[in-house]
Design brief:
The complex is a heterotetramer, with 2 copies of chain A and 2 copies of chain B.
Chain A (H helix, E strand, L loop, with lengths): L2 E7 L8 E4 L4 E5 L6 H11 L29 E9 L11 E9 L4 E5 L2 E3 L1 H7 L8 H4 E2 L4 H4 L8 H7 L1
Antiparallel strand pairs in A: 1-2, 1-4, 4-5, 5-6, 6-7
Chain B lengths: L1 H23 L3 E6 L10 E6 L6 E2 L5 H18 L4 E5 L7 H14 L4 E5 L3 H5 L3 E9 L2 E7 L17
Parallel strand pairs in B: 4-5
Antiparallel strand pairs in B: 1-2, 2-3, 6-7
Classes of the chains: A alpha+beta, B alpha+beta.
Bound molecules: adenosine-5'-triphosphate (2 copies) and magnesium ion (2 copies).
């Protein structure tokens, strides 16, 4: 497999520390409207370096920090850690597993960590060079976006092909 | 770079013929360059013929047919340039029973090579998963995860998850 | 009730003459993907004077004429007739019922008929002045468009209000 | 004209509070003018608070919550400026069980005043209809209509349609 585990705290509706294990093959996420399924998808995009707030369904990057509920106060930071197995030697490193963490404080910039040490987004992206990850049109198909694969504009349809090339 | 694009484009075209037939249970699909003299900038035309119907521009397709066609193109792209994991958020929302079954067959096939994380409300899609994660908001506004057994019931702490196939 | 009956022949996938009776209250249209449900919605918009081909999911207005199937040849004209009851005196005429027909031939313009006599689109629109019909954003909510009611652009959200005013 | 817009705007705002609560089973919704000095051109802000959550911009809502909120706004507009008939094509596609039930209640209520034509795949929505029309393609590529009894079975030629109370 590739995705091994994701842990998050303070990210969108995941106020409490939550850990999710992934298996090989097909994993299905289920639950009622508004319970947090797409927020998990957002968390995966975010920790892998998503820069566009619109792709996170937000207006400012700090909107991804848990903003409170009727009973709970807002939190001051969001943190997501993803653990990836390198079992097919896909990533150009010697380790069997790598962990990427991203953290943001209110009124702050994002901080990245690679296997526990501070890192820059650039280093994380270089890790994924040529695996197809981090090109968000390619390995993540967001809710409602399947219609845009067959965009009505012939020029836009190229995007999927260009990303693959 | 023109060569790389053309190579990828040809490969996707060929796979798209195939995935389209698998998902629609027949018929055919064609992709063409609007301007063959200028492959690096040209838009793309897509013509499809669902089984029994006539070849037509994708704009006349129904909502469900567009979804299915978009899924065919997306899976064709995956086959040409696989990604280690794919996240698909409710791409089956517009599909009827017959289409869902064929979609699930293609998904199960692809799930042998790559890892898939699917958000879905559909029972047949859920039935093909190796692992089920339930997302809930037991406390309003705060998400949490429950691991479900493959019959959809909550798995207790020391139970083993039942893996499919 | 208001809509009493619609009859069509040669309109999109309705190659054969088809007549549909409407009742008061709620009527549900059901069937598999691509069988023609949204085409009925298009027929109602079209006969009431829809001018935009994009709102008909077409590229040219003649695309609404039955284009053939694997076994059948294309037809040369499309015709839709809608019968409306004037039971609440909603329309500014003395008749209890009015019938509006629209017909198009390939490479031809649309022709309109009001109660059997040729009429211009302008006359038909005057009939509906101030009833809210024929403002396509208002009494018809197309497939996939519910998301645009809450457009992401504050300026676009005004449209619904302006149409109501 | 500024007066007319403001009047309609105020009326819709008020009804939207109400329809939102009906569809979400609680919570609240607010609409505001971005620029109060210029009501005729100003964009609109919409803030909603699903039950138990906090008040937030609609961009953070889930797919299903956005649909439901759009439906609330649309029905609020219907109540302020009713149209003799409303055509709704698969607006319930993204709703889960709990939301569908509340949507159906609102629909049945509205169906007493106006005529509704709904395209839907959902069993609960179908169950509230006074009349069911099945659309099929017995012959590929050619649509036809079958009148269905309210239990979903085809109604034979000389049977009376059963009307719901
Ligand atoms: N920063 C935040 N703080 C608190 N709650 C948030 C935050 N961002 C988003 N949410 C909440 O998360 C919910 C949306 O969750 P999500 O999009 O994951 O739902 P979903 O499970 O995908 O539902 P659907 O089936 O309708 O698509 C919204 O109700 C929103 O209020
Ligand atoms: N001019 C035409 N001639 C023949 N067939 C046509 C024409 N225009 C559209 N069609 C066919 O009508 C079908 C689409 O019908 P429609 O959009 O009504 O489906 P639907 O019942 O709404 O399905 P869904 O549930 O997927 O939304 C397409 O398969 C298309 O090929
Ligand atoms: Mg979602
Ligand atoms: Mg449709």
């Amino acid at each position: 497999g590739f995705l091994k585990r994701i842990e998050m705290v303070g990210f969108k509706s995941f106020a409490d520390r939550t850990s999710i294990e992934f298996v090989d093959g097909i994993t299905a996420l289920l639950g009622p409207n508004g319970c947090g399924k797409s927020n998990i998808v957002d968390a995966i995009k975010w920790v892998l370096g998503e820069q566009s707030v619109r792709n996170m369904r937000a207006e400012r990057m700090e909107d991804v920090i848990f903003g409170g509920s009727e009973k709970r106060k807002a939190l001051s930071a969001a943190e997501v850690t993803i653990t990836i197995t390198n079992d097919r030697g896909l990533l150009e490193v010697e380790r069997p597993e790598i962990a990427i963490k991203r953290r943001i404080f209110r009124d702050g910039e994002s901080e990245y960590f690679l296997n526990g040490s501070p890192a820059r987004l650039k280093e994380i992206r270089e890790l994924f060079h040529d695996t197809g990850i981090g090109k968000s049109a390619y390995s993540v198909m967001e809710q409602g976006r399947i219609d845009q694969v067959l965009s009505n504009k012939p020029e836009e349809r190229r995007c999927l092909f260009e990303e693959a090339a | 770079s023109e060569n790389l694009f053309l190579q990828t484009y040809e490969a996707i075209r060929e796979r798209f013929h195939e995935t389209f037939r698998l998902l629609f249970g027949g018929g055919r699909a064609e992709i063409g360059l609007v301007d063959r003299e200028d492959p690096l900038n040209s838009g793309l035309e897509i013509y499809v013929q669902p089984p029994g119907k006539k070849l037509e521009n994708i704009s006349l397709l129904s909502g469900g047919e567009r979804s299915l066609c978009g899924i065919a193109l997306m899976f064709a792209t995956f086959q040409v340039k696989p990604s280690p994991f794919h996240i698909l958020d409710e791409i089956d929302a517009a599909l009827d029973e017959a289409s869902i079954q064929r979609f699930v067959n293609l998904l199960v096939d692809s799930g042998r090579e790559s890892q898939f994380l699917l958000v879905t409300h559909n029972k047949r899609t859920i039935a093909c998963a190796s692992s089920l994660l339930g997302v809930t908001m037991q406390e309003s506004g705060v998400s949490s995860i429950i691991t479900l057994r493959l019959d959809g019931q909550e798995r207790k702490k020391d139970e083993e998850p039942i893996k499919v196939g």
